[in-house]
Amino acid sequence: MAERPALRPDLATILERIEPGSRALDIGCGDGTLMAALRDEKQVDARGIEIDGACVERCVAQGLSVVQGDADRDLEFYPDSAFDYAILSQTLQTAARPDHMLAELLRVGRRAFVSFPNFAYWRMRWALMRRGRMPVTRHLPVTWYETQNIHHVTVKDFEELAAQLGVRIEDRWYFTREREIGGGGANWRAEYALFEVSR
Amino acid sequence: MSNPHTSLTLPNPLPLDSGQALACVEMAYETYGTLNADKSNAILICHALTGDQYVASTHPITGKPGWWERMVGPGKPIDTDRFHVICANVIGSCLGSTGPQSPASDGEPYAMRFPVITIRDMVRGLVAMLDAMGIAQLHTVVGGSMGGMQALSLAANWPDRAGRVLAIATTARHSAQNIAFHEVGRQAIMADPHWCGGDYYGEESAPDAGLAVARMAAHITYLSEEGLTEKFGRRLQDRDAKTFGFDADFQVESYLRYQGSGFTRRFDANSYLYITRAMDYFDIAEEHGGTLAKAFAGTPARFCLVSFDSDWLYPTAESRHVVHALNAAGAPVSFVELSAPFGHDSFLLDVPALDRVVKGFLDG
């Protein structure tokens, strides 16, 4: 098997945390990088949902089970507790209703991994304050009018949403410049965050 | 009359959904590639309504290449260097398998005495053929359109017979619109004075005019408006002005007439009646207590469904419906809607993305 390119750190963390042989649903699975790693390294029964047809094609070509669809609409067709894990990496901020999405994740999965760009990251705050315009950064590289991110969220916002929904935060990781950082001052220091949550 | 096609005779009568049974059933088939020692590399390809077993070899009547020659062959997405590919003419059809023009026990053609069959009956015939060949489990069953219905029916009713199921541009049930189009075709055939209640075999004339009209109407449903417009627009055929008559003034008319008349040379009108009826009766959920997910409960197979964005005969929503049922049943399923301009016929035409998906699904 060809050497796999290094996983993005949040995906590497998810890969590490997931129990071997479990069932996982990767929502917005892209070209299937995480799914392939889960299958090959952890014998996970991995399923995916992806909206982009070209990505789905690449997944199918790797023998992955990926359904072309819109997570906002199609998650409802998956039965309760069908998966041990639901994974939503860097996609929460594109959901029509992130609160509904989070609830759906924990309906179809016992646990969920959610990662998202932290809009309270100090560079974002600085860019907004200094220039008075929506920041375009390395991690959020698209102009405001063409971005798929429709609900910008911060670490604090997510924690508050979890509390409101009665969702338990099992663990959390913070990343800046593709490195994991400590939790101190995460809301302004983290470029993006990963949460493991359960019902 | 000897059968000019390769065929085998099923050892037992074939029970049918109607409650009847069909005796001495001939299954005409073609194979490509080599069956390996443990018989684990067989792929069954199921053909569409007017298709046949000549999937990757020259058609004996038209002399044209096989209908899926671009997909099946050495080094092609369905690689005959690796797989043993089997394609059979379905029962009810007319290229060597038992159908309305085959002799009944009295030596005369069945004609309309042929029992009404279903898609599941066709699959029953295919499974019995596989039994006769000693193939317990297919690597994959593949089909587009009506072939996809057979692939899904096999998965639902004989879940252990295929490790993978690839269903392209298809549906788990015929819609009212699908049935309506078929009824137009059937009425065209039955309105032809040469149809004679189906007893036209051995007569000088067959209901060719009716069959051609049926084919013309159906052919429109296989294309997309975009494709038709691109190919023909409103251009005139071999003339500079309209004739103010009913000749084929427009290129699209001439094309449809050509499609219709070519079809009558290779297809039997009664087979068209029986096979369209089988498709109209098709509803996998109905066979399984009204719930499609139940049909696939506990299936061990891996599925891949493909639809085309320009297909309005079996649109993407039909495939999604199957995908949702498979998800509910917990089956491993992939689904992709491919973009292609050719309408329903896209699965037969040059769509490189389909090649990649088929190859990926078989190899993965």
TrEMBL record, chain A:
CDD domains in alphabetical order: AdoMet_MTases
Query: Mind telling me which InterPro entries this protein's record contains?
Result: Methionine_synth_MetW (IPR010743), SAM-dependent_MTases_sf (IPR029063)
Lineage top rank: taxon: Bacteria
Q: Gene3D superfamilies, per this entry? A: Vaccinia Virus protein VP39
One Pfam family from the UniProt entry?
MetW
The transmembrane segments are none
Q: What is this protein called?
A: SAM-dependent methyltransferase
TrEMBL record, chain B:
EC number(s) per UniProt?
A: 2.3.1.31
The residues listed in the UniProt record as binding substrate, with positions renumbered to this chain, are R215, D345
* Active site: residue positions: S145, D311, H344
Q: Which organism is it from?
A: Erythrobacter litoralis (strain HTCC2594)
Tell me which residues make up the AB hydrolase-1 domain.
41-311
Q: Which family does the entry's similarity section mention? A: Belongs to the AB hydrolase superfamily. MetX family.
Q: Which HAMAP family match?
A: MetX_acyltransf (MF_00296)
UniProt keyword Transport, yes or no:
no
Question: What Pfam family is a match for this entry?
Answer: Abhydrolase_1
> Is Ion transport a UniProt keyword of this protein?
no
Name the chain's protein.
Homoserine O-acetyltransferase
